[in-house]
Amino acid sequence: MRIGILTGGGDSPGCNAAIRAVVRRGIYGGHVTVGFEDGWLGVMEGRARELSHNDVSRILFIGGTMLGTSRTNPFKIDGGVEKCAASLKDWRIDALITIGGDDTNGVAHRLAQHGIKAVGIPQTIDNDIPGTDYSLGFDSAVNIVMGAIDRLHTTAESHHRVLVVEIMGRDAGWLALFGGISGGADAILTPETKFDIDRVVEIIRKRHSIGKRSSIVAVAEGAAPIEGMQVTQSAEIDAFGHKRLGGVGEWVAGEIQKRSGFETRTVILGHLQRGGSASAFDRILASRFGVKAVEMCEASEFDRMVAIQGMNITSVPLAEAIGTTRLVPPDLVRDADFLK
Ligand code: F6P
Question: Global pTM?
Fold first, then answer.
């Protein structure tokens, strides 16, 4: 077979490990892997190259994606779908593996109606894709958030400050919650439930009353106060209808300082969370996902996404994996509440 591969949407550590696994498992099965550049944009423009064993050497530990990525939606571009179909035909692609989140794999699902055979690999630091316990990149990002909070504790303690850490995660608080718990944040605010700023201030006051002189508040970029809305950086909307979030940390910090009088600072982790090498967990997950994706191509199991459920690598229909956000279950949030 000639198997096409692309990475789309926000990158994350682990993409390269997945590409490597697809190429190597492909060679084992006698297939040729064709890497499309910059997600769906590269497919539309026919920008691709065949990937050899050597092309994927020593990329396991390199962050980002060797293929490049974009947030291109062919369904929003005149003739986009036809261009994708023509390019895949020109490159004689029998099956396509798409590595990305809801948007990238959503395009793959819609293209199935146009005869394109695809298998999705879930990849986003947001970890919000239904059908899989983990998406690629999440664990690496959790480790970055944890490391950042570890460092913030010492400076917060030295200066007797409250530090508010703004963490990525549009509609689901997985990264804020897991990063916050592992880093020992004192309050964690997620998009799932609107937060009460008075309660946050109360938590910090209580800590001071037992002798603590610093606190860390982890806030997801998509979290919103009960009296308001998600904070956006601009009115700009991308090809998939997403707003650019950012700024809630600054708002939370301002309110804490105003209401409590404690000196407060904000740290926005931003794209640091998507950089650097993948964790061991993500490298293993990517490798298993890559092998499974090629095996699904061989078995003609298309319009599906590979997934991990418990320890098992399995697959789910793409239709079930797109269009909705997998939110953090309330019992996980409740556990974090006991640790304040
Ligand atoms: O979808 C992953 C994500 O990292 C979100 O957490 C974040 O809101 C968004 O991407 C940022 O996108 P961009 O890289 O386009 O600024």
Answer: 0.97
